[in-house]
Each structure stands twice: as C-alpha cells, then as structure tokens.
Write a structure and sequence with these properties.
The protein is an alpha+beta fold. The chain has two domains: 62 residues; 110 residues. Helix content is 44%, strand content 15%. The protein has a six-stranded antiparallel β-sheet with strand order 1-2-3-4-6-5, sandwiched between helices. Strand 3 and strand 4 form a beta hairpin.
Length: 180
C-alpha cells in the first residue's frame, strides 16, 4: 500500500473520530449509486473532510482490490504509460508529507486538503493530467478541464516523460499550494 495512503488511514481515527473499518460499517448500511453520493453523505452527515471522505468511499467500494491492483488495472494495455505515471507520482510526493495518493477505478487522485491533481490514462498513448488551478487562464498546453468536468479546472495531455518539464511541474506545485 502507498505510504501516504497508509498514513491517511492511520490518522483517520484522530482526524475523523472513527477508524476506516468503522466508516466502512457505516457505509454498508447505505446504498449509494454514485461515488459522489457517498462522499457527500460523509461530508454533510458526519463532517468528514473531502479527502478523507473520498478515501473512505473508495476503499469501501472495492475492498477486494488493493491500491496497487487499482493502478495495475488502469494500465492494462497501456503499459507504455506507466513510467510517465511513476514520474508524475515522484514529482508530487516531493511537494510535502501532506500529499495523499488515492487510486480509484479509472484514475488516481492526488490530495492535500483537497484534490489538486488527477492522473488518468486516457488512451494507450496519453495520460490526461487534471489540475485544480482556479482563475488561471487556459493556454494551448494548459487546456480546459475537458472530460474531468468540475473535478479539475485544467487538463494537460502527456504523451512522454519529456512532457513533465519545469512548466508542468510549476503548475502542479501551484495547484498543491492552492490546495492548503
């Protein structure tokens, strides 16, 4: 399991008042159609922050899958993109100890106090990197959020490790800072 995710799970009782297993028991009594319904329930009814709520719901849904399984499944048939994913993770993990990596079924959320980066293998040759940069204008490279909708404000399409340059790292760092 990813170290940051394990830290989040370990901190859950202190930060949310309940352990992951206790939260899973609460969610088992409900039948949420959408992931966001479970997240909103935890936020509104129990005062859980978005990052913890998202992690709790994600880990409650697919108990049979580990974080590594979720990521492996995303890159089946897209193995050439995996080194790009690993490089993106190494960049965001260097931003601070408060970065949490939360794999989901089709993407990986990178969270500080809230999600600031979303990594999604979009095609066999491209990763879509979602960024949360409110009020930042779009450019040819820093496009609108596209299929990410409101989860992100911008999207950068990455096809090689060389695309992870100082400009992109700067945008990722800016999104990290805004997520405090």
């Amino acid at each position: 399991m990813d170290k940051a995710l394990q830290t989040m799970i370990n901190n859950m009782p202190e930060k949310t008042g309940k352990s992951l297993d206790q939260w899973k028991s609460i969610l088992k009594t409900k039948a949420f159609v959408k992931h966001s319904d479970g997240v909103n329930f935890l936020k509104k009814e129990h005062g859980v922050t978005h990052g913890f709520a998202n992690t709790i719901v994600t880990l409650s849904k697919d108990e049979q899958y580990t974080s590594d399984d979720l990521v492996s499944n995303q890159y089946k048939g897209k193995e050439a993109l995996f080194p790009i994913y690993e490089k993106l993770l190494s960049v965001v993990k260097n931003f601070g100890d408060d970065v949490t990596i939360t794999p989901k079924k089709t993407s990986v959320s990178v969270i500080r106090n809230r999600q600031f980066v979303l990594i999604k293998p979009a095609t066999k040759t491209r990763i879509d990197l979602g960024l949360k940069l409110p009020e930042k204008p779009t450019t040819d490279r820093l496009g609108n959020s596209g299929p990410f909708g409101t989860m992100c404000t911008h999207r950068v399409q990455i096809t090689s490790e060389n695309d992870i340059d100082q400009e992109l790292i700067g945008w990722m760092k800016e999104a990290y800072v805004k997520a405090e």
